[in-house]
Amino acid sequence: MTTGTAPLTHHHYWQGAFIDDEEAGRRLAALPATVEAALAGPLETETVLAACERLAAALRDPAHPTRARLAEHLADGEDTSVLTELAAFLGRPELTRKLRRELGGTTPQRLTRPDARETVYEAWAPVGLVAHIAPGNAATVAPLSLVEGLLAGNVNVLKTSSADTLLAQHLLAELAALDPTGAIAERVIVLRFSSSRQDWLRLMCAPADAVAVWGGEAAVEGVAAHVPPGCRLVEWGHKISFAYLTPDAWHDGRTLTALAADVCLHEQQACSSPQVVYLDTEDEKEVFAFAERFAGVLAAMPPAVRQEEPGPAEEAELTTTELVARLEQHLGLTRVITAPDGSWRVMADTRSALTASPLHRSVWVKPLPRKRALATLRPMRRYLQTAGIAGSRTDVAELSRLVLAAGATRVTPLGAMLDGYCGEPHDGVYALQRYSRRVAVQADERFATTACLDDLTLPVSFPAPDGPLLDKAAVQELNAGVDPRDAELYFRSGGSTGAPALSLFSYDDYDTQMHAAARGLLAAGYDPARDRTANLFYCGGMYGGFISFFSILERLGGVQMPMAAGPDHRVTAEMIVAHEVDTLFGMPSYLWQLLHEQADLLRSYGGIRKIFYGGEHFTEEQRRTLTETFGIEVVRSITYGSTDLGPLGYQCTESAGGVHHLHADLHTLEILETDADRPVAPGETGRLVFTTHARRGQNLGRYVIGDLGRALPGPCPCGNRSPRFELLGRGGDVMRVASYFLNYRRFVAIAEQDCGHRGELQVALSRSSVRERLTVRAEDTGTDPQQLRAAFLAGYEELRSAVGDGLLDLDVETVDGAALERTPTSGKLRTVVDARR
Fold first, then answer.
1. What are phi and psi of 415, to 5 degrees?
2. What are the entry keywords (predicted)?
């Protein structure tokens, strides 16, 4: 892709290369085939967001070579603030907010279930080809319009004026060059030609599915002639804005100063600049008195910083408008106050009809009692945009409804008429929706556990991560630098793998993660239309388990009893029976205690069919007990995740044990060797390293989460194409004891396989004056501790050697499950308790 200086005759950028007129004409003739080829490949929204964020960072840096290259293409009289303005729009926070507001999320093109209780999938799909006809002398409009088309997934062809510089071409070339996939370049064509070149305009519009045109009525009509039947015409035409003041407001000096600021900013060249000031009165004397007072305020405003002299046509309009208004003074209809140097003019008019201003600090002042506002303004509804209202709180509320009914599309305070906010609709519509189609797929019961239809065909793919590896301490250091605006939600980790730490989220990030976890729960077999759920995760102390699964069920529309884990198991069991709960959410250790302590009541009830667990694992023997003793049909992981990163993986109906699918729309997974920072061989066990995408204000890349696992090759029988991996314990499960490395999971496997142990297991490490001691605490489920000890020594060679060499004392004891040590916030079993000093 070309980002360097193009030859002087190469005014057009076409899918990664600068070309001349002859080549552009040849390619325009084949535009339909070009569009079809480009649409055949995917364009992930994240691809666009990542490239835009890189370009925004370059534009914000005064010393960056990209900024320097683009500055060469600014028009005469324009300074680099234009590039800063572009950077503000292209930043990830602004674009993600725009996507959420306009299309409902940051992956709008994925076919997901708007109602999880139905197998109906909806998405926003690109319309196909969007032709953008940009206005002249508006440096930011052209490229930003095309970026909106990219966000919606379209192929885009942009026409800039023949009088414009090549800023749009080079800016979009830089953007395309920052996309390693090449998908952006495939969807970007930028042509520079005069509107008189009707043959090119016709070729550009003929295959379009939407045509976006910026300009006045003449410009729109000229383009509309080339728009084919069925093609969507998106008009971004010229608009008129006005101010409306109540009596209290127009006597307030601060209000008049704010109004004058709106008039002078950009010299009324913006559609949102006030051209008319309406007063809520029928008294002509008040109109003339206000005009005199406002003229004094306008005269005190500083002159334009970069005032451009009006052209001949504009000068003629200014002169004619003022002359006619002065002539009507003799009839008592008007009064004109003008600056001695002609730099501003206030024209009071006793007639209420909306009249366009000749701009350049020229303002009409007219009476308009609110009882006549609708009838006066509605005939001009096609042209109305912003109403700046000044009055009491009640006035603002009442008048807002009135002017919106008349046709205005936005209401602001005075002094803020030209201000906007990220994601604001433009002229009453959302641009991304105009460049998209809402599509739906109805499916049958075979898709009950398919949350996203795209998972069956094409997994999300992100560029390979780079940069340094991060551990928990490094992430905590990064948290200290998070902008407070991005730290809206604080969660505290359970502390089962170390000291509790805080994790920070924006509400947008949290919402994205909860929706992803909800989709994973559907894949695991949760049925929101039928299941009645008791949420029995722990709550309190800023621990997020209970809150998160409450949020997940809320998004699924599932029936839930938010009980939370509590010490009174009898009360919990009685609630389960009373409310006919058939599905339990919770930690394995807590659910195990609850079921066994209240076995008689819950077995006689017999209504529990499903268990979804998180944070720990049930052993195979425990699963067998749940099935055979309690009649539970489904025992499956509710999610695999962490407090820092959120949901990482999910099980499907074909998954068992520690096997999970990756939440590939949120994360990239690497598996690195345990003793070196390089990928493991295919199928080998290593450290799980996750890179999280699109976290607002945080860059959680290459996070070594502390878990071990391996990638699973081949497709999953469920049909989901998302990558699979198998959890194989935590790095902390490996203990350095008496010069040997021992693994907690080996103890669990031996106890289960050789002795049929069905309870929990905990390893405690201590040190005496003579040697180290390893104590295995086994939950008392009838297993003989001596039999367990013998099995450990027989089945674990390293343990046998350590004990035989006199380096380690081995004890095995059975205890009540409630006596095992657990983390206080989450209730997780502490698998290894190391008391050595």
1. 90, -5
2. Luminescence, NADP, Oxidoreductase
